[in-house]
Model the fold of this input.
Amino acid sequence: MHAHPVSADPGLFAHGLALAGMVAAIAYWWAAGRLLRRGDAWPQWRKISFTAGSAGVAWIAVSPLPGEPFTAHMMEHLVLGMAAPLLLVLARPFTLTLRVLPPGTARRRILTLAHSRPAAWLVFPPVAALLDLGGLWLLYRTELFAAVQHRPLWHAVMHGHVLAAGLLFTFSVCQLDPVRHRRNLPLRGATLLAAGAAHAVLAKTLYATPPPGTAFTTADVQTGAQIMYYGGDVVEAALAVVLAASWFQAAGRTRRRRLRTKLL
Done:
C-alpha cells in the first residue's frame, strides 16, 4: 500500500530500504553458511528465495518502473506488497535465526517476543488480513492516495506499511516459522479466500473509478487495476499452493504416526 511520486527522487528512506534489503540478504547467506560450516543443512532454494525477495524490495525502492504513473504504482504494489513478502516468508528467516543463535539470552528473548500475546494476535490470520487489505481500501477509496503522491515523508510511511502488512499477512497465512499458536488450515484457507476476494473487488472498483482526488488517465487507471487484479490472483494462487503443501505434509506425518503405532 504505497504511492510512488511520479517524478520525485527516491530519497533517503528509499535508499535506506534498498540498503536494508541488501544487508538482509548478506546476513541470511552468512547465517546459512554458518549452519553449513557446523554440519547442518539449509536448503539452497531458501537462500535463493530470500535473495530474490530482498532484491525485489531494493529494486522497487530505488528504480523507476515503466509505464504511466498509476500502472507503475501497481507494479510496485504487486512486488513490494505481495511477491517479495511471499519469497521472504518461504525462506523461513526466523527459523534460520533461531538455529544459528547459540542457546543464551538473545535466543530466549527472541523466542519470548515471538511467543508473546501481542505477537500472537498480530499473526492471527483475520487480524493480519484486516491490517493489510483494510489499509489498501483506505488508501485507494479515500483521498489518502492523492495526499501522499508528492509528500516524501508520507510516501515513506506508505512504503513501510505495505511491506510490513504484506509480510505480516503472508506469515500469518503460511505459518512456516514457529509461532505461539499454529492456526488450523481451514482458518488460514478461509482468510486467504476472503482476502483474495477483497483484493479482487478493490481492483474492480479501481477499474471503474480512480482513487478520489487523482487525475490519472482512464487507460492508466484501468491498466493498473488489471495488474492489481490478475497479478494478485497469481500470488494468491501461490499462497494456496503453500497451504496445500502444508496440508499434505501434515497428513503425511499423521499417517506415519499411525503406522508406527500399529507396528508397535
Observations:
- Residues 1-8 have pLDDT under 50 and may be disordered.
- Residues 11-102+132-263 form one domain.
- The radius of gyration is 20 Å.
